[in-house]
């Protein structure tokens, strides 16, 4: 898959650039090293490769020698830094409407990350879904959480906000101010990246809600979304659908084609043009996800096997050993240093 097909709005890197000390980072060098167009950072509709953004975020944490810094850097960004996407939440009729707006319009921010919003009898969950094939996105996710939590606080004029945070990544070695503020309401090593709200909170109206203003914001968002829709990659959609159906044990060419509403032959042709096949792509996604879950989470082996579509742990173990030359427990033991 061509990495340039997977993009994010350049605003995210520009916001990071503006927040960092200029003497510590040479952005022309970073652009060359991580493969993005520096000029795109100043363009309102500029995009950069998604993997470049995650790589830059990891690099920044290393240079700062602080693996929790991105929580606070993005939590402290002013409202409006990400234009319409900020106001789609803080000006919504209710927090529920704000969550649904973020889900609906995320495609104008990136074409390879998705949001889901689900409710049960007592809670609502806003979950970020980032395909494991995109590599290490830990610091990028910390930034997303810092930014989104601040918008919840702004909407309710309340800090800390009445929200629970779950993250797949293990806890950073350093501690951010956001972590101190939310204490045991932020959990690491979980099975998902999400914010969890009570039903009562979801029904609250943001302090900045204005019906007329919000209709204008939504109209502008629809127009902006349409302008970015053409940048979507069919290959990204195929890969994302493989990742999702893998979790349910129904990952097959027939199922993926049916869910996407395109023919099996079209999928085979698209993949052949990229020098791969459905089987090869599925194997690549499964292998990449296994490595990430084992190295960066504390999820039980049984749960990891399930998420990758394996019905038996023994089958999962054999597959991991064939990919990495070591059984799953050895990979986790090596990383943990125990």
Automatic annotation (TrEMBL):
Entry keyword annotation includes Iron-sulfur: no
Record keyword Lipid metabolism present: no
Pfam families named in the record: Arabinose_bd, HTH_18
Gene3D superfamilies referenced in this protein's UniProt entry, alphabetically: Homeodomain-like
InterPro entries hit by this protein: AraC-type_N (IPR032687), Homeodomain-like_sf (IPR009057), HTH_AraC (IPR018060)
Keywords assigned by UniProt, alphabetized: DNA-binding, Transcription, Transcription regulation
Residue stretches making up the HTH araC/xylS-type domain: 236-334
The protein's name in its UniProt record: AraC family transcriptional regulator ligand-binding domain-containing protein
Lineage: Bacteria, Pseudomonadati, Pseudomonadota, Alphaproteobacteria, Hyphomicrobiales
């Amino acid at each position: 898959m061509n990495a340039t097909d997977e993009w994010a709005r350049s605003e995210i890197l520009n916001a990071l650039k503006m927040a960092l000390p200029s003497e510590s980072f040479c952005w022309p060098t970073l652009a060359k090293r991580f493969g993005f167009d520096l000029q795109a950072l100043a363009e309102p509709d500029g995009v950069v490769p998604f993997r470049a953004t995650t790589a830059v975020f990891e690099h920044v944490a290393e240079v700062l020698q602080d693996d929790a810094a991105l929580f606070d850097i993005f939590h402290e960004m002013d409202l409006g830094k990400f234009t319409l996407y900020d106001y789609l939440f803080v000006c919504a009729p209710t927090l529920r409407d704000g969550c649904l707006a973020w889900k609906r319009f995320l495609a104008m921010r990136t074409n390879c990350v998705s949001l889901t919003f689900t409710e049960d009898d007592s809670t609502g969950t806003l979950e970020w879904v980032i395909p494991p094939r995109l590599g290490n996105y830990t610091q990028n996710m910390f930034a997303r959480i810092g930014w989104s939590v601040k918008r919840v606080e702004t909407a309710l004029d309340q800090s800390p906000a009445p929200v629970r945070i779950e993250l797949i990544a293990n806890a950073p070695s350093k501690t951010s101010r956001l972590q101190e503020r939310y204490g045991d309401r932020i959990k690491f090593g979980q099975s998902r990246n999400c914010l969890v709200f009570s039903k009562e909170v979801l029904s609250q109206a943001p302090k900045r809600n204005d019906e007329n203003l919000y209709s204008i914001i939504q109209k502008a968002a629809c127009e902006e979304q349409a302008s970015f829709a053409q940048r979507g990659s069919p290959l990204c959609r195929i890969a994302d659908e493989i990742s999702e159906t893998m979790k349910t044990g129904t990952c097959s060419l027939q199922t993926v084609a049916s869910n996407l509403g395109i023919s099996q032959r079209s999928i085979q042709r698209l993949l052949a043009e990229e020098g791969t096949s459905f089987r090869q792509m599925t194997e690549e996604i499964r292998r990449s996800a296994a490595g990430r879950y084992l190295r960066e989470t504390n999820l039980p082996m049984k749960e990891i096997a399930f998420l990758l579509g394996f019905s038996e742990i023994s089958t999962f173990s054999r597959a991991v050993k064939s990919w990495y030359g070591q059984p799953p427990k050895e990979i986790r033991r090596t990383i943990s240093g125990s």
